[in-house]
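My hope is that you will study the record closing this message with an eye to the fold:
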Amino acid sequence: MAERKIRFKVIEKYLTIAILAETLFFILYMIFAGVGNTGFKVVFAVLCLLISIAVLAFLYLKKELFRPRCTWMTFAAAAIVLLVLLSLILNFPSPKPLAMPQAAAFVMQYWI
C-alpha cells in the first residue's frame, strides 16, 4: 500500500511539472500569436498539444485518467488542448482579430 502512495506521489510530481511547462508554453503561444509571429506561434502550439496529449495518454495507460485523485491533472491537460485548438480554429489572438479581410470589405462596401 505504501508503495502505491509513493508511486502516485512521483507520478503527480512529474505530471505537475509537465502541466506547468505546458501552461508556460500556452502563455508564450498566446503572446506570439498576439504579436503576429507565426513561426513561434506554430512551435508553441505544437508543443502545447504534444505535452497535453502525452499527459493524457500517460494517465490513460497508468489507468489513472478517471480516478478522483487525478481529476485535476486530466482537466488541466484537456483544457489546454481545447484552448489551443479553439484559438487556432478561431485565429484568436491575432494582430488584428476583428479586422475584416479585404474580400469581405469589398463586398460590404456595396451592401451598405
The chain has four helices and no strands.
